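User: My instructor asked us to take a sequence, write out its structure as C-alpha cells, and then describe one feature of it. I'm not sure where to start. Here is the sequence I was given:
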Amino acid sequence: MVEPILNIPINPDDSIERLSSREWLVTNGLGGYASGTIMGLNTRRYHGLFVPNLSAPLGRTMMLPFLAEDVLFDQQKVALGAIEYKDGHMDSKGKQFLREFRLEWLTPTWIYDFNGHILEKRIFMPFAKNTVYASYRLSGGRGPVRLQLRPYCSCRVHDGSLGYPPDWPFTVKIEKERYEISAFEGAPALRLSIDPFKGFFVAEGDWLKNVFYRLELQRGLDCVENIHSPGFFSFELEDNAEMFFMASNEGWDSLVRDPADIFDEELKRRKNTVAQAQGVVHHHVTSQLALAADQFIALPRTRDEKNARTVMAGYHWFTDWGRDTMISLEGLTLCTGRKAEARKILETFSHYVRNGLLPNHFPEGETHPIYNTADATFWFFHAIDRYVHYTHDRGMVEQLYPILESIIDWHVQGTDFGIYMDPADGLIHAGTEGQQLTWMDAKVDDWVVTPRRGKPVEIQGLWFNALRLMEMWSQWLGKPSDKYAQLAERTFESFHRIFWYKEGGYLYDVVNDHHGNDHSLRPNQIFALSLHFPLLHKDRWKNVVDIVEEKLLTPFGLRTLDAGHKDYHARYEGNRYQRDGAYHQGLVWAWLIGPFLDAWEKVYHDPNKAREFFKAFETHLKEAGIGTVSEIFDGDWPYLPRGCMAQAWSVAEVLRSFLRL
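Assistant: Let's start with the prediction itself. The C-alpha cells for your sequence are:
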C-alpha cells in the first residue's frame, strides 16, 4: 500500500505567506472539524481547534478558536502558533523552531526543534464524537520542558459575525481534574482536560483584543475579533513522554478512555478506509484522495434519522447540498468501496423529495431543506445509475422507482420555481424572477449573477439521461416504458433543432424563447455528451470537446466562461459583490475535469494524453488545503486556489477520473 503521507519541510527563512497559505483540516464524521494553517496562524473566522456540529438549531459552532501553546526551555518562552493583530503586529517566534509539517493519514503533525528538545504535536478527532485532541511528545534526550496551554473560547456560529456581547460571563466549573466552560447561560458546555494530569490549572482570565483574520479582509467581511481565555494549564513534559489536551461537548463518562487508544482506533479506521477502496492503494495521489473523501461523508447531526448519511459539500462553510452530493457520490463512496454508505445517502435524500424536487441544500443548523434547484433532482438519477453500475443492486431501483416515477410526472405537469416540461418541444424550462436554479447559482442580496432562466443546456442533457434511465429501469422491472422512450425521443429531436449555435460550432448555453438564446461559451454543454446516455448526436461530439478544450480547459479544470467574453472575470477576490460576480464568470472549477474527461475520452480514447490533465493536481495536494482539492481556481495563470480549501465534488471527480486512467 502506498501510504497517504505528505511531508512539507520547513526552513527558518520560509515566508509567513507560504506557511499561512497552507491549511490543514481534521473532521469527525459529524460535520464538525478542526482547522488552521501549518504556521499556526488563524487567517479565517473558520480556523479553530474545535468546531463541533451541534444539534439543531445550532449547527457548526466555533467553541475553541485558538489554543495558545507556550514552550518553556533553557530559560526561554516560545509560542508555537502565531497571532496577527489589527494594527499589523504579529507574534510568530515559534516559526523559527518549526522544522517539518507532515500530514500522516490525514493527521496534521508538527515537528519543532528547541535547541535539541524535539517536540512532536498532532491533532486528531475520533469518529462520530464531538471531541478533539492535541498531543505533545518530547524527545531528544535533553530533559523535560514545560508547556503552558491557554484555551481561548467562544460560542458563535462558525460563519457568523465575529465577536459576542461583552457581558458573556465565561463561567468555569472545576471538579477534580475536569474543567467545564460556559460562555453564557444555556450555552453548550465546553469540557477541557489534559491526560495524564500531572500539572495544574491557573484560573486567570485573559483577552486577546483585535485579533485579525487576513483572508476575511480579502473576502470583504468583518475580520477582527476579541477572544477570551478563562485560564491555562501548565505541566512538565518529560523526555520520551506524551501528553494530551482534550476539548469536547461529549459527556464526561464517555471521555475517560486513554487518548492514545482513541488515536490508534482512529488510525486503524482510516487505514481500513484506504484498504477497502478500489484500486487506490498503488498510487500516492489516489490513496491520499480516498482518505480525503472520508472527510465529507457524515452523519447528519441536525436531523434525527436512523442510519442516515449525507455529504458535506465543502469546508469550511458548505453544509449538505443535493446537487453536490449526487455528483460526488461515485467518487466519494463507490470508487472507495463504500457501497453501503452510498445506498444510505441515496435513501436519506429520497426521504426529502417534495413536489418532484430533490433538496438544493440544508441550511446551517436547520432540519428542513430548501428546494430551489432544477438540476439536483436529475443528478439523483445519475447517482442511482452509478450505484447500480458498481453494486448490481437492482433492488435499489425497485425501492426508489415510485419516487423516480413521480419526479418525471411532476416535471411533465410542472413543479415549483417555474420548472416544467415545455409541451411545445418536450424540453425542460427552469426559472423564475429572483431565483438561481442551476449549479451556477451565485446570488448577492437580490442580484442573481447568472440567472440562466429558460432552457439551460445541461438541464436538457440531465433530463434526457433520466428519461433513458427510466426507460431502462422500467424494462428491468417489467413496467411500461413507452412513455419514457417517447419523451426521450422528442427531447432528442427538439434539442438538435434549437440548441446548435451554428456560427460558433457549439451549443447554446441557454435557449430562451422570449429573451433570445445565450451563446456564451461555457462548460455546461459538456453534459450533453458526458453522461450515460448522451443527448448530443455523435457527429457533433468532437466540435464541442475541441472548443471546450481550446477555450476553457486549464491545469485545474474548466473555466466557467470563455476568457474573450465581455463579462469574463479572472480572479476571485474583493467583497461579496465582486467575488460572487466572478464565481461563475470565468473562474476554474476543479470538479468539471471529471465530465470533461468523460466527454474527451468518448472522442479521443487516448489515456496517455488524458493523464496529462491531472499533473497539476499532484502538486496541488501540498498547497492550499493540504491533502485535498480546492473548490475553485483563478481563471488565469498562476491559477491560484480559491474558495473552499476542501470541496467534495473536487475531490470526488479528480479521484474518479484519475482511477479511470
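For the description part of your assignment, you could build on this observation: The chain has two domains: 5-269, 276-660. Try explaining in your own words what that tells you about the chain.
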